[in-house]
Amino acid sequence: MEISIQQAVTNNRREKPPTDATLGFGKYYSDHMFTMAWNPENKWHDLKITPFAPFNLSPATMVLHYGQTIFEGLKAYRTETGRINLFRPEKNWERLNQSAARLVMPEIDQEVFLTAIQRLVALDRDWVPDSYGASLYIRPTLIGTEPFIGLKPSSTFLFFIITGPVGAYYPGGFNPVSIQVCERYSRAGPGGLGEAKTAANYAASLLAQKEASGQGFNQVLWLDACERKYLEEVGSMNIFLKIKGTLITPPLGGSILGGVTRDSVIRLAKSWNIPVEENRISIEEVLEAQRNGTLEEIFGAGTAAVISPVGLLNYKGESHPIGDGKTGTLAHQLFDEIMGIQYSLKPDPFQWVSPIHLE
Ligand SMILES: *Cc1c(COP(=O)(O)O)cnc(C)c1O
């Protein structure tokens, strides 16, 4: 596989931001990006790493009108010994191709996907923060690029990967968030796009998130679109509940995104002999468990935060504390274990970590 590399000239390199509480998420981009193009004659071609720069796109470009776009999100972690780790990147490749199939886009070879990330992160290695909790966020994205104003799948595509340093999600400590059950809007319905990592789902969520924030809640709890009864996701994370010692998460039935963190949580919990159920659970069952004292924990799971404990649940104007409003024991254990594996501070029994080859 040929990837041409054109390095940014020294005086075009960006200044690296400080790795402190101001780093935040999504504000800074590294010096280089990976791109490759697809057309029906050549399939994927023109694989290259170039300086990070704007694209030149026709205003008629299909993705801008019909939303034919999918993305992934993963991180590179710097260990104490200076090594750089990826965490289960082959799962992101797998999911990218599942999203591609749903959005009528061409698949990408595993070797191309993984090698592109390897070379890009190796080249921009100095952008990987070295403080625990901070990391280099990696954003692979695939868009339809044909300039055409008419509804059909695009006939040309662009795949690109950009990266940027992000801070520890909890610079002020691992504190629980408040969530509000969304009664008015849905993020995804049966047969829709919920199980694809595609822009439309996030566009659908913006107003709900804005209204919940306006009422003082951190995140939206999404219920199923048909009956507004069964839990689906929290914000853009998968949701877990611990009731009477059992860990419960909604099954991947089509409208829920299959998170890599979700899968890691399930496998770790099972390895600790915690019973895990992938079952539908209604908001009424959750509130009943809260009332009778069997609801021990609720937390979200996703790459950005790893684990996000929930301390308060608001439904129909009433607020209910979860686990005394404090971070649960299991949430804490999972957070420490997953982060420990990502930063090579703990053993990696499932071989989830793969190093960046720094020659
Ligand atoms: C990305 C995402 C998740 C979490 O997936 P991870 O692979 O764990 O980061 C969950 N829900 C939605 C809607 C997402 O977009």
SSE order and pairing:
Blueprint: E1 4-5, E2 32-39, E3 43-51, H1 62-66, E4 69-71, E5 74-78, E6 84-87, H2 89-102, H3 110-123, E7 135-144, E8 157-166, E9 177-181, H4 199-214, E10 219-223, E11 231-234, E12 237-243, E13 246-249, H5 260-271, E14 276-278, H6 283-291, E15 295-302, E16 306-315, E17 318-321, H7 329-342, E18 353-355
Parallel strand pairs: 1-3, 9-10, 9-16, 13-14
Antiparallel strand pairs: 2-3, 2-8, 4-7, 5-6, 5-7, 6-18, 7-8, 10-11, 11-12, 12-13, 12-15, 15-16, 16-17
The chain binds pyridoxal-5'-phosphate.
What tags apply to this protein structure?
359 residues; alpha+beta; D-amino Acid Aminotransferase, Chain A, domain 1; D-amino Acid Aminotransferase, Chain A, domain 2; 2 domains; nine-stranded mixed sheet; six-stranded mixed β-barrel; 18 strands; 29% strand; binds pyridoxal-5'-phosphate
Can you walk through the features of this model?
The longest helix is centred in the middle third of the chain and has 16 residues. Strands 1, 2, 3, 4, 5, 6, 7, 8 and 18 form a nine-stranded mixed sheet that branches. This protein has a six-stranded mixed beta barrel with strand order 9-10-11-12-15-16, surrounded by four helices. It is built from seven helices and 18 strands. The protein has two domains: 163 residues, Aminotransferase class 4, branched-chain amino acid transferase, N-terminal domain (D-amino Acid Aminotransferase, Chain A, domain 1, 2-Layer Sandwich), CATH 3.30.470; 166 residues, D-amino Acid Aminotransferase, Chain A, domain 2 (Alpha-Beta Barrel). The mean pLDDT is 96. The protein starts with a strand and ends with a strand. A hairpin with a 7-residue loop joins strand 10 and strand 11. It is α+β, with helices and mostly antiparallel strands. Pyridoxal-5'-phosphate binds next to strand 12 and helix 5.
